[in-house]
Structure formats: C-alpha cells, structure tokens
Design goal:
The protein is mainly alpha-helical. The chain has one domain. 52% of the residues lie in helices and 7% in strands. It is built from five helices and two strands; from the N terminus they run αααααββ. It has a two-stranded antiparallel sheet with strand order 1-2. The chain is globular.
C-alpha cells in the first residue's frame, strides 16, 4: 500500500486529538446534548458516526471483521474520554489495514440488501488522486 496513506492518517490522528482536547473540556451533558440542528443530533453522535464509518468500511468491509464486534451505539459513549477509547480501536484497525492491504484500488462488489430490491454497486479502480505518487 502507498506509504503516504499512513502519514496522512497520522495527520488525521493529530487533528482529531485537537478536537478531543476541546470536547474533553465540555461537561458530559453538553457533549451529549441533542440539538435538532446538528447532523446526528449531538457532538458525541457525530463523532460516533465518523468512528463507525471507519469501523464498518475498513474493519468490516475491508478486513472482514464482524460488524457486531466493532461497531457501537453512540449512546454507549458517555463522554469525550470514552470516545477517545473508541477512536483508539479505529486507529488500530486502520493501522492493520495499512499493513494488510496491498492494492487499495482493486475493484470489488458491494451488495446491500435494499429497501425494495438488492442494490448492487461495483466500485471500479479509481484514478490516482496524486499523480506525482507514481
């Protein structure tokens, strides 16, 4: 796998830590308070959604892990420190993917039981985003 992906992800971790430093300063009732104008309802729920996106797409779809062993409900996370622990799990899964994945642009088929019928998508090889990378 392109070694620059691990570098990019390390930047994500550092940036996320800045956000955790801020959210850890909030009282738990503010961190978890539901706001009708927030996507996913609260700061906690937004972070849980992002973590679950990594866990499902990289962990379940990419590494074949069982969804019920990695995904979690936002309500199970009472504060920012507990969310940090969830993201530590995300980081371990992404690090494993960076070691295991050899060709991230290989086509694969995604079949999801749909609303009225099966939805079938084939993800094709994507063009290189960074032409200087080779």
């Amino acid at each position: 796998m392109d070694p620059s992906l691990a570098l990019f992800y390390s930047w994500i971790i550092r940036t996320r830590e800045e956000l955790f430093a801020y959210t850890a300063s909030l009282p738990s009732e503010i961190y978890t308070r539901e706001h009708p104008d927030f996507a996913y309802g609260s700061v906690r729920n937004i972070q849980a959604h992002v973590a679950n996106c990594y866990l499902v797409w990289v962990g379940q779809r990419g590494l074949g892990m069982e969804r019920d062993q990695i995904a979690f409900e936002a309500a199970s996370v009472p504060d920012a420190e507990a969310m940090r622990i969830k993201f530590a799990q995300v980081d371990r899964i992404v690090e494993k993917a960076c070691r295991v994945f050899e060709q991230p642009d290989v086509s694969f088929e995604l079949v999801r039981p749909g609303r009225d019928r099966l939805q079938k998508r084939v993800w094709a090889e994507s063009p290189r985003i960074y032409p200087w990378a080779g």
